[in-house]
């Protein structure tokens, strides 16, 4: 009974979404087509001859249907969702480095699709298990729905963490090159531009975007702050703060970069040492689960076999 009610609610939700899409897209398009047709037939009693279109210039099914449908669903979801949810989604996309590739509306549509697919899988699983109690059915549906809702966020978080690790790993090298270039006589922007031209990576992409912002007229301090907010890495925030303070106080930029490079190398060394200290603790579980049982079998099994033979005799 509960499964039937849940299936009916999902079907009603899908019907409501499709009705909203048809009402917003198909019906106005149909009215517009009929109006144009009446104009064609009523203009001086003659039909306007349509221009022959090239087949290559006609948009495909994806451009005509799927893309507008995705945009409409994304705008609908973001309007219905809380503003904090949309802002957090946009911030996560930027942190993961997908701010220019994916939009919040597009990822919201992907999130809804994942939830619906997981719900369908859950319904199929429940229909194959008639022995489950009603409470178990409800728990299974809630568990699958929560998993489907959390899966896109987990994927986005993993991508953001991976990118942040790459930024942290690349920052000391970039600081060393910046320090050498500035001490050689280049300005900060020129040195950073040369590094951007010769290197690749997530930190280089953020530096390139910062230079583009400065080129478009944004103050360098604000561009640096925006870069630190996009990265959400503590080391980058410290670097940005040091550069802004050096520019504001008028201190030597080369000396500031040298100090920052030394500090970043020391922090990197401490991080590596901390990871090395955690290695013995992480090795305990593989030892207990895989290596110790094998050792016990190799050492104790012959003795157990001998004892069994002696008892049989």
UniProtKB/TrEMBL annotation:
Key word Transcription regulation present: no
InterPro entries in the record: T2SS_GspF_dom, T2SS_GspF_sf
Superkingdom field: Bacteria
Keyword terms, alphabetized: Cell membrane, Membrane, Transmembrane, Transmembrane helix
Main location: membrane
Domain Type II secretion system protein GspF intervals: 175-300
Pfam families: T2SSF (PF00482)
GO cellular component, one term: plasma membrane
Intracellular or extracellular location(s): Cell membrane
Membrane topology recorded in Swiss-Prot or TrEMBL: Multi-pass membrane protein
Transmembrane segments: 6-22, 108-127, 133-156, 283-305
Gene3D superfamilies according to UniProt: Type II secretion system (T2SS), domain F
PANTHER family attached to this UniProt entry: INTEGRAL MEMBRANE PROTEIN-RELATED, PILUS ASSEMBLE PROTEIN
UniProt protein name: Type II secretion system F family protein
